[in-house]
Design a protein that fits this description.
4 copies of one chain form a homotetramer. By secondary structure, chain A is mainly alpha-helical. Chain A contains 12 helices and 2 strands. The first copy, chain A, folds into 2 domains: about 160 residues; about 130 residues, no CATH class. Chains A, B, C, D: InterPro entries: Ion_trans_dom, TRPM. Chains A, B, C, D: It is a multi-pass membrane protein.
Chain lengths: ~350, ~350, ~350, ~350
């Protein structure tokens, strides 16, 4: 015996039933999710095919859609129970999903600002590309309702701190091995001829090469070193070489010369130890940590997931019934309703 | 003191003994398995060497063999205890092995239909190739009787759902990274010039490249980007550059240009984070999940395996004594016997 | 208060002390191990540098050394407590190390036989190479005395059966994927033109390529397929194409043609699923199994190791005091001693 | 109610407060760590860009800095509680971090000695490069204070012994497989023509190639073998081939010839088994060991970490307040203070 939901305590009319169904959190979740998937397809289309210097209609449509998101989020902040604006924002930011939304919206604003100027157009493209990743990661929100995927996401989130520990340990070995190997493989690098290209090359060689090597992309031909003799000018002296009969002497320039290929075996040995530490010790230690932590958080994950589910339902209960591109209409209507309440209703009641 | 098995309560004759031995589930299992292995060898031979536009004798022989399988499966469905046809099919489908059989038989029919027509001949070959995999996977049925392999298969089957969770998480990161990186590496893609080849290339770049990268095939030279300048026509304006004495001015076209190699470092950084998430976090999380689940299902696996063994023995008890290529004969004989029972025996009894 | 060890119940003389030290199992173990390491160095030298058609002195010396091993093993068999020859051999074979010795000695005999004949000389080299591996694996015997390494070896030995299960599951997926992908990538293979080279190529493509792919060596360029059209002759028919005014008609040959590159996407998808199953599911399942089994056998491993240690000490107690290349001398002396006991001592006692 | 810290039992003056703050272990740790990071940046700069035959100012500055380190360590040894020098050194060496310091300082001295001489200049560069790694690994000292990283470092340190066990097992398989495969792939190697280059090549082929293969860098094209016929001269004999009518006979040289490509399939098979053992069995066994050991040492790690923290605080309490490049000043001042205590104070007190 559920309570009657109708206006006058009776049954709902068909239209009311439809409205209740349409406004229930589960329905809202379904069509908001569908709308979001469509949004992602459009976004992918724009960044892959339709990103020109002059905005295309599709891109403008996309930006309107994101603008709707923005209004949505502002409404959510306004609806937080806290009284002060600071408190409202703090409450809102406490959810990891809202932080996602904030990042994506800030990135969009930045991307829009950058792409509109001639000089920063290329940075605008980069911002759009990075934003793609953020928008796709927001899809995990939809995964969250799944009984199978939700708790795994909670555990995944918990594991991030363990991976950071792993990276903190790894970065030291990467730096130690990367700098040592580069100092042996590239002998003629000079600090006075550095430009942005050569700096980015050095960063790549020092940081990324050891990182790729950790994944088994050993790049052995790079480790072999270029076969070019580098001689130190200041070390040269003239060496007089005389034949036995001392009749003819030839002067030879004797310099200290180095060849990266001579150092190749040292770099090979360094790679040997680096791989043991980076690939075998650290990775396997991480596996052991994951196995340990998984056993610990497995039970809690279900609790946390249920708590998150509650939050999600509350959020969708509040969410407008219209999907993003038309959500402005709903908010306009809400504002009208609010104004009507303030003015007309009072009159009526009077 | 076993019960005597002979017709008149006495010992079995030598021929009867041979028949009992030949009809016992274990013997049936042995020669059905051997026949199946021979079938697989023939199938491999046909798809590797003997798949011509006009069917070869070997292929026709193979299709007859599969037709025997088909009759076998129909007989099995008919023998299910349920009374209605729907119930019989439901009972039959409830076993994962029967689902395997169903898929392979449907694929065979489809493959036959496709390969017989000129236009769809190439699709026929694809269907034959996919069917090879399905036929080989049915071999696990034979593994199932092993005390060592059986329970492992049960656990393997249980792990599939965990891998699906892993894939569901992975696909989001693949899409996010794949679309973002492609939007930076291929600037001149155009939605209006898309054809089937270019679409399949984009699908490969967006979906498969990140997937291969997860396995350590980093394809670093593709990430470096092609060194080709792409200029936006609509962004061009004429720039008048005058010398100091203002006597001569040259007009220059000033355009916003992009080069994929300039974005290379962004894609490298994206790959950096993608590999941490895809290769390190997700894979190690999966290992932790597997370790956890394995400990849980280890005991049950033995129970489930024993239950499956019972099912297997029952099935082989029912199976015809003749192996597939000649199984039609047995079924014909069964029908004859059944008809004889219906007609002659009654007369005899009368 | 140890018991006096001297002949007449008193102290040992210096020479006797030296002999006791020299004959103690631990000393014997040390110099037998050293001798074995020297043997391995020599063996490596011979197979790498000194394997000619005519035997070099080094190789002959090596064969004499192995002959000494052989005598040693025969003496060990003779010393087993069982009375019958069959029992002695069974007792001896029950130790995994003796089985190693047996295999290496049989391989040596075979290798010697093969390398002496003109026709089988190349097989002789293969047998020598394989024997290298067996001889080096015998080094684990020396590891076995280590407190750290010994129990790990016991666990390693226990894990072999789990790896066999893994391989048994893997081989089915390898066959299924390998045959299916090869049937799409190489269309013009013909059973009638097979020779040993093409068979070994097909074996490599079907079995080894999927195996290497499991280790992340994806060989994507091989999967792309060669770009060569293969047309089926029997499918060709003459197609008359007439222009609209019917004045001129040209005859065209219309054939069903295939191109491996058209099937590339199917093979890519197959590799997609094969890698999930082979690299992710099976490998991670194996890790889970190893983790489980390790926890189980960890305690027992110590017990088994101690038992093996006892066996080892007993063996070295029996072993001749001289190291392999001179061991013949010791055995000759033992035989002499035995004969003296039989003849002279009896006289003396009389 | 803390105890008053002022000289005369009262409050501290502002300058005293500043000094107390500046001399507290936590502040010392902060600026010593910062100074060390700056040192590492300078060191990286020198080895990457500024390592010339004639020392640059930067390198000299660096060496002065390291000299300061040296004095620091000597002061630490002197401050150890033990009375004898040997005891002091033993106490000091018992900490793993001090051993790190010792190695790095010895390496620096060696590197300096080597780089100053013409003949050993290249070895000097190698020593500098290796020292880079050691200096960067000392950074872990700073990590040690972190609540998250510290215990992980303790566990990491504990795992080293397990990895050594793994390597000890691995090296046997590497040698067995490496020597066997090389004996088949390079047939014309000769012990008499060996020089340092060819020896280092052989070492690489025998030891490093199997090691890289373990990480999935299978180098399949090297395993295929060079396609060059090697014939044994001593095996040649003259074969008279006569035609049927015996009128004309031709003499043919019949030799035993070998081709590495003929042995390719054996090497492939060897790699097959080597990968199962090296990549699958040993690596997964190591994962199982790590998981087991991690569960064991997890609790202890926190205890050990706390003990290490105490040690660290004590060390920083003793450390000079000035950072390394100026630390000499502090020590000079300490010596002065000590002398003053010895002489002036006594007078004062008198």
């Amino acid at each position: 015996s559920f309570q009657k939901l109708g206006d006058n305590g009776g049954e709902l009319t068909t239209l009311q039933k439809l409205l209740v169904f349409y406004k229930s959190p589960i329905s809202k979740f379904c069509y908001h999710s569908s709308a979001y998937v469509i949004f992602l397809v459009l976004y992918a289309y724009v960044v892959l095919f339709d990103f020109e210097y002059e905005m295309t209609y599709m891109e403008i449509f996309l930006l309107i859609w994101i603008f709707n998101h923005l209004i949505n989020e502002i409404a959510e902040i306004a609806a937080e129970p806290s009284l002060s604006l600071r408190g409202k924002i703090n409450d809102w930011v406490s959810s990891v999903w809202n932080r996602f939304d904030m990042v994506s919206l800030l990135l969009t604003c930045m991307a829009l600002g950058l792409r509109l100027h001639r000089q920063t157009f290329t940075w605008g493209r980069i911002a759009y590309a990075i934003n793609t990743t953020v928008f796709y990661c927001r899809l995990f929100r939809i995964y969250h309702v799944s009984y199978h995927l939700g708790p795994k996401l909670v555990i995944f989130y918990r594991m991030i701190s363990e991976v950071l520990v792993f990276l903190a340990l790894l970065v030291i070995f990467i730096l130690g091995y990367g700098i040592a190997s580069q100092s042996l493989l590239h002998l003629s690098r000079n600090a006075f001829t550095l430009n942005s290209t050569s700096i980015s090359n050095i960063m790549k060689d020092v940081l990324l090469t050891p990182y790729w090597q950790m994944y088994g992309e050993l790049q052995l031909e790079e480790i072999a070193g270029e076969d070019e003799q580098v001689c130190h000018q200041k070390s040269c002296w003239v060496n007089e070489v005389c034949f036995k009969d001392n009749t003819s002497c030839t002067k030879e320039l004797d310099c200290v010369c180095e060849n990266p290929t001579d150092y190749s075996w040292v770099v090979n040995l360094m790679l040997f130890f680096y791989l043991i530490i980076g690939n075998i010790m650290l990775l396997n230690l991480l596996i052991a940590i994951f196995t340990y932590v998984f056993d610990e958080v497995q039970e809690n994950s279900m609790e946390i997931w249920k708590f998150e589910m509650l939050r999600l339902i509350q959020e969708y209960d509040f969410k407008p019934a219209l999907v993003p591109p038309f959500v402005v209409i709903e908010y306009l209507w809400r504002v009208c309703k609010y104004l009507w309440k303030l003015t007309c209703r009072e009159e009526k009641e009077n």
